Amino acid sequence: MIHYNQCPVCKSSDIQYAFKAKDxxxxxxxxxxxDCKACxxxxxQDVPAQDTIGRYYQSDNYxxxxxxxxxxxxxxxxxxxxxxxxxxxxxxxxxxxxxxGKVLDIGCGTGxxxxxxxxxxxxxxxxxPDDTARKNAETLHHVFPRPSHDLFQLEKGHYDVITMWHVxxxxxxxxxxxxxCNLLLKxxxxxxxxxxxxxxxxxxxxxEYWAAYDVPxxxxxxxxxxxxxxxxxxxxxxVKMKPMWFDSFYVSMLSEQCKKGKANNIKAGSIGLLxxxxxxxxxxxxxxxxxxxxxx
Length: 296
Ligand SMILES: [Zn+2]
What we know:
Layout: E1 15-22, E2 30-36, E3 42-44, H1 63-66, H2 72-96, E4 102-106, H3 112-119, E5 123-127, H4 131-141, E6 159-165, H5 174-184, E7 185-196, H6 201-206, E8 220-221, H7 224-232, E9 236-243, H8 245-260, H9 265-281, E10 288-295
Parallel strand pairs: 4-5, 4-6, 6-7
Antiparallel strand pairs: 1-2, 2-3, 3-8, 7-10, 9-10
Helix pairs in contact: 2-3, 2-8, 8-9
Bound molecules: zinc ion (ZN).
Protein backbone atom coordinates (compact mmCIF):
# COMPACT_ATOMS: atom_id res chain seq x y z
CA MET A 1 0.00 0.00 0.00
CA ILE A 2 1.20 3.50 -0.79
CA HIS A 3 0.50 6.34 1.61
CA TYR A 4 1.45 9.74 0.19
CA ASN A 5 2.77 12.38 2.59
CA GLN A 6 3.35 14.77 -0.30
CA CYS A 7 1.44 15.61 -3.46
CA PRO A 8 2.39 12.98 -6.09
CA VAL A 9 2.69 15.80 -8.66
CA CYS A 10 4.22 18.92 -7.13
CA LYS A 11 5.61 17.35 -3.89
CA SER A 12 3.89 19.94 -1.69
CA SER A 13 3.05 18.68 1.81
CA ASP A 14 -0.04 20.93 1.84
CA ILE A 15 -2.40 17.99 1.18
CA GLN A 16 -5.67 17.04 2.86
CA TYR A 17 -8.44 14.46 2.94
CA ALA A 18 -11.46 15.26 0.73
CA PHE A 19 -13.87 12.27 0.78
CA LYS A 20 -14.11 8.49 0.43
CA ALA A 21 -14.94 6.90 -2.91
CA LYS A 22 -16.08 3.31 -3.49
CA ASP A 23 -14.74 0.75 -5.96
CA UNK A 24 -18.01 -0.07 -7.75
CA UNK A 25 -16.45 -2.29 -10.43
CA UNK A 26 -14.51 -4.98 -8.58
CA UNK A 27 -13.98 -4.95 -4.81
CA UNK A 28 -16.64 -2.71 -3.24
CA UNK A 29 -13.88 -1.30 -1.01
CA UNK A 30 -13.68 2.36 0.04
CA UNK A 31 -10.63 4.50 -0.69
CA UNK A 32 -9.85 7.98 0.64
CA UNK A 33 -9.39 10.72 -1.96
CA UNK A 34 -7.09 13.62 -1.10
CA ASP A 35 -6.46 17.11 -2.50
CA CYS A 36 -3.27 19.09 -3.00
CA LYS A 37 -3.84 22.72 -2.04
CA ALA A 38 -0.77 23.86 -3.97
CA CYS A 39 -1.46 22.53 -7.49
CA UNK A 40 -5.13 21.37 -7.22
CA UNK A 41 -4.17 17.77 -7.97
CA UNK A 42 -6.51 15.14 -6.47
CA UNK A 43 -5.32 11.60 -5.78
CA UNK A 44 -6.45 8.27 -4.34
CA GLN A 45 -4.74 7.79 -0.98
CA ASP A 46 -3.50 4.43 0.40
CA VAL A 47 -3.55 2.80 -3.04
CA PRO A 48 -2.27 -0.73 -3.67
CA ALA A 49 1.32 -0.82 -4.95
CA GLN A 50 2.06 -1.74 -8.56
CA ASP A 51 2.68 -5.43 -7.77
CA THR A 52 -0.59 -5.88 -5.84
CA ILE A 53 -3.09 -3.72 -7.77
CA GLY A 54 -3.63 -6.48 -10.39
CA ARG A 55 -6.55 -8.04 -8.52
CA TYR A 56 -8.50 -4.76 -8.80
CA TYR A 57 -8.48 -5.22 -12.58
CA GLN A 58 -9.87 -8.79 -12.34
CA SER A 59 -13.38 -8.22 -13.65
CA ASP A 60 -15.38 -9.47 -16.59
CA ASN A 61 -16.72 -5.94 -16.74
CA TYR A 62 -13.32 -4.40 -17.32
CA UNK A 63 -14.20 -3.32 -20.81
CA UNK A 64 -10.91 -2.04 -22.22
CA UNK A 65 -9.42 -5.52 -21.74
CA UNK A 66 -12.31 -7.73 -22.75
CA UNK A 67 -13.89 -5.91 -25.70
CA UNK A 68 -17.29 -7.32 -24.68
CA UNK A 69 -20.33 -5.88 -26.46
CA UNK A 70 -22.97 -7.14 -24.01
CA UNK A 71 -25.36 -4.68 -22.37
CA UNK A 72 -26.43 -1.15 -23.29
CA UNK A 73 -23.47 0.71 -21.78
CA UNK A 74 -20.94 -1.61 -23.47
CA UNK A 75 -22.79 -1.28 -26.78
CA UNK A 76 -22.72 2.50 -26.40
CA UNK A 77 -19.01 2.32 -25.54
CA UNK A 78 -18.29 0.53 -28.81
CA UNK A 79 -20.53 2.82 -30.89
CA UNK A 80 -18.81 5.86 -29.42
CA UNK A 81 -15.38 4.27 -29.81
CA UNK A 82 -15.84 4.05 -33.57
CA UNK A 83 -16.55 7.77 -33.76
CA UNK A 84 -13.82 8.78 -31.33
CA UNK A 85 -11.19 6.64 -33.10
CA UNK A 86 -11.90 8.44 -36.31
CA UNK A 87 -11.63 11.83 -34.58
CA UNK A 88 -8.40 10.77 -32.81
CA UNK A 89 -6.89 9.74 -36.15
CA UNK A 90 -7.74 13.17 -37.58
CA UNK A 91 -6.41 14.89 -34.46
CA UNK A 92 -2.99 13.25 -34.84
CA UNK A 93 -2.70 14.41 -38.43
CA UNK A 94 -3.66 17.96 -37.46
CA UNK A 95 -1.41 18.34 -34.38
CA UNK A 96 1.62 16.79 -36.11
CA UNK A 97 1.04 18.36 -39.53
CA UNK A 98 1.87 14.91 -40.93
CA UNK A 99 -0.26 12.58 -43.04
CA UNK A 100 2.04 9.71 -42.07
CA GLY A 101 4.38 9.56 -39.09
CA LYS A 102 5.52 7.47 -36.16
CA VAL A 103 3.09 7.02 -33.29
CA LEU A 104 3.57 5.34 -29.93
CA ASP A 105 0.35 4.50 -28.06
CA ILE A 106 0.96 3.77 -24.37
CA GLY A 107 -1.74 1.52 -22.88
CA CYS A 108 -3.14 0.58 -26.28
CA GLY A 109 -5.67 -1.96 -24.89
CA THR A 110 -7.02 -4.16 -27.66
CA GLY A 111 -5.39 -1.97 -30.32
CA UNK A 112 -8.40 -0.45 -32.10
CA UNK A 113 -6.87 3.04 -32.27
CA UNK A 114 -3.47 1.77 -33.51
CA UNK A 115 -5.20 -0.36 -36.13
CA UNK A 116 -6.84 2.79 -37.47
CA UNK A 117 -3.51 4.68 -37.46
CA UNK A 118 -1.85 1.81 -39.34
CA UNK A 119 -4.56 1.91 -41.97
CA UNK A 120 -3.93 5.64 -42.31
CA UNK A 121 -0.30 4.79 -43.16
CA UNK A 122 1.40 5.52 -39.84
CA UNK A 123 4.21 3.43 -38.35
CA UNK A 124 2.75 2.15 -35.08
CA UNK A 125 4.15 1.00 -31.72
CA UNK A 126 1.87 -0.12 -28.88
CA UNK A 127 2.49 -0.83 -25.22
CA UNK A 128 0.01 -2.68 -23.00
CA PRO A 129 0.49 -4.17 -19.51
CA ASP A 130 -2.41 -6.67 -19.62
CA ASP A 131 -1.65 -10.09 -21.18
CA THR A 132 -5.26 -10.73 -22.23
CA ALA A 133 -5.57 -7.32 -23.88
CA ARG A 134 -2.29 -7.92 -25.76
CA LYS A 135 -3.56 -11.27 -27.09
CA ASN A 136 -6.91 -9.71 -28.03
CA ALA A 137 -5.07 -6.94 -29.89
CA GLU A 138 -3.37 -9.58 -32.03
CA THR A 139 -6.51 -11.54 -32.86
CA LEU A 140 -8.96 -8.64 -33.13
CA HIS A 141 -6.87 -5.91 -34.79
CA HIS A 142 -3.59 -7.49 -35.99
CA VAL A 143 -1.73 -5.12 -33.69
CA PHE A 144 1.20 -6.58 -31.72
CA PRO A 145 1.73 -4.59 -28.51
CA ARG A 146 4.80 -4.93 -26.31
CA PRO A 147 4.65 -5.13 -22.49
CA SER A 148 4.55 -1.70 -20.80
CA HIS A 149 8.01 -1.82 -19.21
CA ASP A 150 9.46 -1.78 -22.75
CA LEU A 151 8.73 1.97 -22.62
CA PHE A 152 12.20 2.40 -21.16
CA GLN A 153 13.85 0.40 -24.01
CA LEU A 154 12.39 2.28 -26.98
CA GLU A 155 14.46 4.45 -29.33
CA LYS A 156 14.93 8.04 -28.15
CA GLY A 157 13.98 11.00 -30.35
CA HIS A 158 12.03 8.64 -32.61
CA TYR A 159 8.34 9.47 -32.34
CA ASP A 160 6.26 12.23 -33.93
CA VAL A 161 3.35 11.64 -31.57
CA ILE A 162 2.96 9.74 -28.30
CA THR A 163 -0.57 9.11 -27.05
CA MET A 164 -1.99 8.07 -23.69
CA TRP A 165 -5.78 7.77 -23.94
CA HIS A 166 -7.12 7.46 -20.40
CA VAL A 167 -3.95 5.76 -19.25
CA UNK A 168 -1.86 8.16 -17.16
CA UNK A 169 -4.36 8.04 -14.27
CA UNK A 170 -3.47 4.32 -13.92
CA UNK A 171 0.33 4.65 -13.95
CA UNK A 172 2.35 4.28 -10.73
CA UNK A 173 5.54 5.72 -12.29
CA UNK A 174 3.94 9.09 -13.01
CA UNK A 175 7.04 11.29 -13.32
CA UNK A 176 9.15 8.57 -14.98
CA UNK A 177 6.53 8.21 -17.74
CA UNK A 178 6.49 11.94 -18.54
CA UNK A 179 10.31 12.14 -18.51
CA UNK A 180 10.52 9.13 -20.82
CA CYS A 181 7.87 10.50 -23.22
CA ASN A 182 9.90 13.70 -23.51
CA LEU A 183 13.03 11.65 -24.37
CA LEU A 184 11.25 9.43 -26.91
CA LEU A 185 9.68 12.35 -28.81
CA LYS A 186 11.33 14.12 -31.71
CA UNK A 187 12.27 17.75 -31.01
CA UNK A 188 9.00 19.02 -32.53
CA UNK A 189 6.98 15.98 -31.40
CA UNK A 190 3.63 16.05 -29.62
CA UNK A 191 2.48 14.29 -26.49
CA UNK A 192 -1.29 13.73 -26.25
CA UNK A 193 -2.73 12.88 -22.84
CA UNK A 194 -6.44 12.28 -22.30
CA UNK A 195 -7.67 12.02 -18.70
CA UNK A 196 -10.93 12.60 -16.80
CA UNK A 197 -11.38 16.09 -15.37
CA UNK A 198 -12.63 16.20 -11.78
CA UNK A 199 -13.37 19.93 -12.13
CA UNK A 200 -16.05 19.18 -14.76
CA UNK A 201 -19.79 19.80 -14.41
CA UNK A 202 -20.70 16.09 -14.20
CA UNK A 203 -17.98 15.47 -11.57
CA UNK A 204 -19.48 18.31 -9.52
CA UNK A 205 -22.98 16.85 -9.83
CA UNK A 206 -22.07 13.30 -8.82
CA UNK A 207 -19.33 14.13 -6.28
CA GLU A 208 -18.06 10.86 -4.68
CA TYR A 209 -20.34 8.83 -7.01
CA TRP A 210 -18.64 10.21 -10.14
CA ALA A 211 -17.70 7.02 -12.03
CA ALA A 212 -14.45 8.47 -13.35
CA TYR A 213 -12.95 8.42 -9.84
CA ASP A 214 -12.83 4.65 -10.47
CA VAL A 215 -10.78 3.94 -7.33
CA PRO A 216 -8.31 2.37 -6.81
CA UNK A 217 -7.54 1.84 -10.54
CA UNK A 218 -7.45 5.61 -11.03
CA UNK A 219 -4.56 6.63 -8.82
CA UNK A 220 -4.83 10.27 -9.93
CA UNK A 221 -7.57 12.79 -10.65
CA UNK A 222 -6.34 15.68 -12.76
CA UNK A 223 -7.47 19.28 -13.02
CA UNK A 224 -6.16 21.40 -15.93
CA UNK A 225 -3.90 23.28 -13.49
CA UNK A 226 -2.32 20.12 -12.09
CA UNK A 227 -1.68 18.72 -15.59
CA UNK A 228 0.08 21.97 -16.55
CA UNK A 229 2.13 21.73 -13.34
CA UNK A 230 3.12 18.11 -14.02
CA UNK A 231 4.34 18.52 -17.59
CA UNK A 232 5.95 21.87 -16.70
CA UNK A 233 8.17 20.03 -14.19
CA UNK A 234 9.54 17.95 -17.09
CA UNK A 235 10.37 20.64 -19.65
CA UNK A 236 7.05 20.47 -21.46
CA UNK A 237 3.96 22.64 -21.76
CA UNK A 238 0.26 22.26 -22.52
CA VAL A 239 -0.34 24.12 -25.79
CA LYS A 240 -4.02 23.25 -26.20
CA MET A 241 -6.92 21.47 -24.52
CA LYS A 242 -9.69 19.72 -26.42
CA PRO A 243 -12.99 18.47 -24.99
CA MET A 244 -14.18 14.84 -25.21
CA TRP A 245 -17.91 15.38 -25.57
CA PHE A 246 -19.10 11.77 -25.30
CA ASP A 247 -17.38 11.10 -21.98
CA SER A 248 -19.82 13.24 -20.01
CA PHE A 249 -22.73 11.05 -21.15
CA TYR A 250 -20.93 7.77 -20.72
CA VAL A 251 -19.51 8.69 -17.30
CA SER A 252 -22.91 10.08 -16.18
CA MET A 253 -24.63 6.80 -17.12
CA LEU A 254 -22.10 4.85 -15.08
CA SER A 255 -22.30 7.36 -12.20
CA GLU A 256 -26.08 7.06 -12.06
CA GLN A 257 -25.62 3.29 -11.57
CA CYS A 258 -23.00 3.88 -8.86
CA LYS A 259 -25.27 6.30 -7.01
CA LYS A 260 -28.65 4.57 -7.28
CA GLY A 261 -27.65 1.00 -8.13
CA LYS A 262 -29.70 1.14 -11.34
CA ALA A 263 -29.67 2.86 -14.69
CA ASN A 264 -31.42 6.21 -15.17
CA ASN A 265 -30.40 7.24 -18.64
CA ILE A 266 -32.69 10.27 -18.79
CA LYS A 267 -31.17 11.76 -15.62
CA ALA A 268 -27.67 10.80 -16.80
CA GLY A 269 -28.32 12.31 -20.22
CA SER A 270 -29.44 15.62 -18.75
CA ILE A 271 -26.44 15.86 -16.40
CA GLY A 272 -24.12 14.93 -19.28
CA LEU A 273 -25.73 17.55 -21.50
CA LEU A 274 -25.54 20.24 -18.84
CA UNK A 275 -21.86 19.44 -18.29
CA UNK A 276 -21.22 19.75 -22.04
CA UNK A 277 -23.11 23.05 -22.24
CA UNK A 278 -20.81 24.49 -19.58
CA UNK A 279 -17.80 23.09 -21.45
CA UNK A 280 -19.03 24.73 -24.65
CA UNK A 281 -18.18 28.08 -23.06
CA UNK A 282 -15.19 26.83 -21.08
CA UNK A 283 -13.25 23.80 -22.36
CA UNK A 284 -11.70 23.34 -18.91
CA UNK A 285 -15.14 22.20 -17.63
CA UNK A 286 -15.45 19.18 -19.91
CA UNK A 287 -15.81 15.70 -18.35
CA UNK A 288 -12.61 14.48 -20.01
CA UNK A 289 -9.90 16.56 -21.63
CA UNK A 290 -7.31 15.92 -24.30
CA UNK A 291 -4.12 17.80 -23.48
CA UNK A 292 -1.87 18.65 -26.44
CA UNK A 293 1.67 18.94 -25.04
CA UNK A 294 4.97 20.00 -26.59
CA UNK A 295 8.55 20.52 -25.45
CA UNK A 296 9.22 23.99 -24.03
ZN1 LIG B 1 0.41 19.36 -5.83
